[in-house]
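User: Quick sanity check before I run a bigger batch. Here is a single chain. Can you write out its predicted 3D structure?
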Amino acid sequence: MKIKKAVIPAAGLGTRVLPASKAMPKEMLPIVDKPAIQYIVEEAVRSGIEDILIITSRGKSIMEDHFDRAPELEARLLAAGKQRQYDEVVSIAGLANIQYLRQKETRGLGHAVWCAKSFVGDEPFAVLYGDDVIIGEDPACGQLCRAYEEFGLGVVGIKEVAPELICKYSSLKTEPLHDNLFRVTDMVEKPAPGKELSNYSILGRCVLPPKIFDILEHTAPGAGGEIQLTDAMLQLALSDGMVGVDYTGVRYDMGSKLGVLQAIVEVGLTHPEVGADFRDYLKKMSCTL
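Assistant: Done. Predicted structure follows.
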């Protein structure tokens, strides 16, 4: 079954990138000349997604403005003969059918996804975490959607994490299937030392069957007193099994200051307008380090 709907949870406070996120959502932090959330929406669209629900919270209406038309700006661009910029601005509003829903209480990622129940209906759907920008020729979300179509099971995007860092993430029990695909049969969130199942962790993307909503409805608060999506996915893994996709592409954690800097530098180096000049600048700067 083709995946046509996606949910982007973007209600978090962004405390790791304060004070930048005090008045501006972390999802709107720019990577060169586009906000992080636009890269995520573009990835979803490239993956065949047609309908997107962005889960927001108080103070994040600027995201809605970004994906809306801007008549005054558009008129000024046309009057100034800036056709390319006009076309680019207008195209943002036509990327996909985007809807918004406020998560009125910060009760965790699991609760944010549960809020999308009426939007999703009885269909499988993708979840693209609002903190994670993944850039590559083959969109990561699309790689997961293909795995869902092949196996008909929930799918998680996975990457290997350094052993000393796995305690900050989830840890998965995996068995190879073929190529970069794995069967996932168990998982633990933020494992204590010695309790790791592997160095594979869920990072940034998943495709879930609609039965996840019934599981979430009966999932008790977990780590941090919040409803954890990982706890619900564990029930899927134990009952039906899940598939892990060690996706290609570079992931940037836009909820961390270092991740933001890495994204700006690495995307900036390949940017068609400024890439060459930026590379020269970095070479000069490197001599002073």
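The two ends are 52 Å apart (CA to CA).

User: Great, the batch can go ahead then.
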